Amino acid sequence: MSGVLFECDHVAFRRGETLVLDGLTFGIAEGATCIAGPSGAGKSTLLRLFNRLGDPVAGSVRYRGRDVRAYDVLSLRREVGLVPQLPALLDGTVAMNVGFGARLAGKGADVRSALGLAGLDESFADRSAGRLSVGEQQRVMLARALALEPKVLLLDEPTSALDERSKAAVEATLLDLRERLSLSFVFVTHELAQAERLADRIVWLDGGRLSARPAPVP
Amino acid sequence: MTGAIHITVGQVAGTLVLVAVAVAVSLWQHVDLERDIGIAVIRSFVQLTAIGYVIKLIFDQDHLAFVVALLAAMVLFGALTARSRARKVPHAFWPLLIALAVSGATTLGLVLALGVFEPQARYLVPVGGMVIGNAMTAAAVALNRLGDEVAGSLDQIEATLALGATATQAVRPVLRRSLRSGMIPLVDSTKTTGLIFFPGTMVGMLLAGAEPVDAVRLQLILLYVLLGSVALGALMSVLLAYRNFFTAAQQLRELPA
After folding, report:
1. Is A131 part of any domain?
2. Residue A163 is part of which domain span?
3. Which of residues 158-187 of A touch B (CB under 8 A)?
4. The domain spanning residue A185 has which CATH number?
5. Between residues 219 and 248 of chain B, which touch chain A (CB distance below 8 Å)?
6. Looking at the 3D structure of chain A, how many domains does it have?
7. pLDDT digits (tens, 9 = 90+) for B63-121
């Protein structure tokens, strides 16, 4: 797996008066890439640009060699799935949530298979999404993205709201998915150890710019 | 009807005793509303007196162009007033203006087409005022709720957009709740009409000496007309305004702080 997935060309992004990304130029290859850096570095913003939930104020973002703005935005979002940091499920059952995106795309979803891929058994399908634990909701978010059969998954701090046991389970699920589905991942994390466990390579951001890997704390 | 009743300035002044009661309650309980009560009394007197003269002029002329001009002014001021309640909705003025204009025109057009009222100033002005006023309140409540709901559901809306949903699909539950908020007050008050309160038109007609059956029938007509105008006003304002939260690329715009 060596094709280039995303390329940023002098990308700048502003939120209000704050420059969140400041002239980023770099590429992300297929496989598993971690975007690491301190809070406010622009990591989540970068994922949003890959999924086109935002557009840069300067520069361009390319996906597989084409400017993301040249794609049909809805098709791009189905191909490049984003799992946000905090669970944000709709009112209703788990099955309704998991099948939601696929139904919008006009195709049926294999809800049980998607749940299985996300590490949840079939019994979750009929449960109310609002009554699940945060860890379970996070997995339903993952299943919902997987039901669209994406080629790339963008994961924004996928284990930040989880306890150690749930975190280990989600990490195992991600490694398993990569093995079984040949999915590419771009994920954001604060944790260096997690980045090293899951990623082929790590991109460091600080203050909206690429930065060198920080020296380990003695 | 036994004829119109005449109210003297002295009778109006007499009711100021009850305003004094309101001021006394405010002072006694330290509610700090004396100034607002004073402003409300003066504004209501000046505004109603002024509109009374305008309506008299229009009734005397009995020309549809004057009626249309007055209703257009009501729509304009209604949209400006409702906009102040919808501060969290970007560019809310045009959706409100269009919603009030369409709601007023459709409702009045329908009652005229059905022959419920004659196309005369003495029917169109008061009924138009009620229609536009109620549609304004419903649209303001609906857009106020829309602004709060979008601001409170940003994560969920973005998560839905990220799945390949259009802006309309992502915001549909929010639209439903906003529309409901705009319509519920009138639906509820219509349900309790005659049990808990007598609506204004009926009270006015009874005071003016009309037969109770006539007063009831006119009130029913107005209630049903208002239900339609409120539904149209809330629906159109919400459907036109929610688009202002999104870009053409189905992205949420950054909301003003």
Report:
1. yes
2. 4-210
3. none
4. 3.40.50.300
5. 247
6. 1
7. 889 999 999 999 999 999 999 889 999 999 999 999 999 999 999 999 899 888 888 88
